């Protein structure tokens, strides 16, 4: 059985080329035969001076420009060694369509694009799923003098470009702490004894995350507390610092969703504007990539 012939996508460039060849004396039948379209189709396009928007009743979800923008975001994450998995890509594509108010046929209940769309998108844009190798942050950043000098050179150019005053430069760091003390106080024991032991309670603490931000002027943004709880309870945040952001999830870790809410918390206190920009540097960002966080500010 012969292979099914694919339809030619009749573009404006092809139509202009046909017009030029016919103007130079070539027949419409010969031009149609050489480019691989029906003569009647060519005559119709020349008469209407239009090109088809779609091939049949199925429409593309994204334009080529939008798919190129999607690819740019995906490749940017991969270059930073935070590649997107299949599940995250399905969510990422759905968020992209919702953010740009693009009509789509994705599953609204799961909030994800379909597998068929993902694989066809990868094929069109010459992408594929690859098995990554584990690599430490310091090895990934090639921590050496050249890279350090390059970092500070880029930082200097950024500060010279936007002229950030000291009170608009922030440093953000997140740290995990235990809900119960895990370091015992010192006790009195005879000198020379190799091992000193002390009976401790059997309680096992759980890890929670604290996100702190401060600028060189000593102005701190109220911290964010991420508790390892599925349901919210106000007693968990009793005696918390004034203005602290309260978050919770099953593991008490920073996630892409919480990071987006934290950015809104940060913006509510910093109040950055196009004419009064702020910068913040995050130490070791391990939260998953999120399209909304890319486009928030």
Task: Summarize this structure as a short list of keywords or feature phrases.
297 residues; alpha/beta; five-stranded mixed β-sheet; 10 helices; 5 strands; 38% helix
Q: What do these coordinates show?
A:
The chain has 297 residues and is an alpha/beta fold. 38% of the residues lie in helices and 12% in strands. The protein is built from ten helices and five strands, in the order ααααααααββββαβα. It has helices at residues 12-23, 28-35, 39-48, 64-79, 86-99, 115-124, 137-140, 145-162, 256-270, 291-295; strands at residues 169-178, 207-214, 220-228, 245-249, 279-282. It has a five-stranded mixed β-sheet with strand order 4-3-2-1-5, covered by helices on one side. Strand 2 and strand 3 (220-228) form a beta hairpin. Helix 1 runs antiparallel to helix 2 (28-35) and helix 2 packs across helix 3. The chain is elongated and about 105 Å long. The mean pLDDT is 80.
Classify the secondary structure makeup into a structural class: alpha/beta
Distance between the termini: 56 Å
Helix content: 25-40%
Mean of pLDDT? 80
Q: What is the 3D shape?
A: elongated
Q: Which residues sit in consecutive blocks of at least 5 with pLDDT less than 50?
A: none
Would you spell out the secondary-structure blueprint of this structure?
Layout: H1 12-23, H2 28-35, H3 39-48, H4 64-79, H5 86-99, H6 115-124, H7 137-140, H8 145-162, E1 169-178, E2 207-214, E3 220-228, E4 245-249, H9 256-270, E5 279-282, H10 291-295
Parallel strand pairs: 1-5, 3-4
Antiparallel strand pairs: 1-2, 2-3
Report a brief summary of the structure.
The protein is built from 10 helices and 5 strands; from the N terminus they run H-H-H-H-H-H-H-H-E-E-E-E-H-E-H.
